[in-house]
Amino acid sequence: MNSTFNYKHFVAGVAGGVTATSILHPLDLIKIRFSVSDGLSSRPQYNSMWDLTKSVWKKQGFRGLYAGVTPNIIGAGMSWGLYFFLYQTIKNQLNRGDASKPLTAFQYLACGIVSGSITLLITNPVWIAKTRLCLQYESQTKIYRGTFHTISSLYKQNGIRGLYKGLVPGLLGTSHGAVQFFVYERLKIWNANRRNVDVGAKMRTADIIAMSAISKITAATSTYPYQVIRARLQEQHRAYKGIWDVIISTWRNEGWKGFYKGLGANLLRVTPACCITFFTYELLMENLPEISTAKT
């Protein structure tokens, strides 16, 4: 039997995350800036996502659309690599390495939540740096010079606590990955049964893309409000007292629509990003040499 600790999952996950983020970062920038735009005068205001895009392009061109890309690539690579590795390791422990043995819905969701929580605890400082760098507007003096300068500055100002702003909604948001992987796993089983092949058999490109898109849209739509809350907690232009302050303020000023601000841009970004990530992951899992340790 192969070891349940198969490092191919980490390598393939890193490659998938880096590839998708390198291509689609501008949409992430647009989503973040639009989701924190709450009508305050302390930051630029935009009438629409298209208005935001034109404004960034006019002031900084192509470079402006890639503000904050370095921590995004680092964070995406680390997160997807760790998540795939942890998820598959836990899953293989539960099914004893038998890919044809499906888990229960609770077990799939538990794998996702545990994997997501561990991954977030490791990568949260990088995500805060990404948010801060993405929210350095063109017309303002730049406070942060790069990823590590941002992290060190936050640590000097607020200690370890400053590096874990938004952690609680982030942990709640692990339900996003849990839902996504649960739907994806179920679709893989359904697709294998439909084609009358083993679950671990090579999948067609169209099947990977379709299943990735369906699982991501389902997860993103159902868990999006937490992303808005988390982004607003992590931004530098307004100091919220906590999660409830964000929720009450958003509801009072913008209603329920405030919790879905930027959802359109988010779906435009995360759906193709997920397809690219999962396609790259599945492709490398099929072609990378076996690097797991033997286990009997």
TrEMBL record:
Keywords: Membrane, Mitochondrion, Mitochondrion inner membrane, Repeat, Transmembrane, Transmembrane helix, Transport. Gene3D superfamilies: Mitochondrial carrier domain. GO terms for cellular component: mitochondrial inner membrane. Solcar repeats lie at residues 4-93, 103-190, 203-287. It is a multi-pass membrane protein. It catalyses: FAD(in) = FAD(out). InterPro entries: MCP, MCP_dom_sf, MCP_transmembrane, SLC25A32-like. GO terms for biological process: organic anion transport. The chain crosses the membrane at residues 64-86, 106-129. One of its GO terms (molecular function) is nucleotide transmembrane transporter activity. It is found in: Mitochondrion inner membrane. Belongs to the mitochondrial carrier (TC 2.A.29) family. Facilitates flavin adenine dinucleotide (FAD) translocation across the mitochondrial inner membrane into the mitochondrial matrix where it acts as a redox cofactor to assist flavoenzyme activities in fundamental metabolic processes including fatty acid beta-oxidation, amino acid and choline metabolism as well as mitochondrial electron transportation. In particular, provides FAD to DLD dehydrogenase of the glycine cleavage system, part of mitochondrial one-carbon metabolic pathway involved in neural tube closure in early embryogenesis. PANTHER family: MITOCHONDRIAL NICOTINAMIDE ADENINE DINUCLEOTIDE TRANSPORTER 1-RELATED-RELATED. This is Solute carrier family 25 member 32. The gene is Slc25a32.
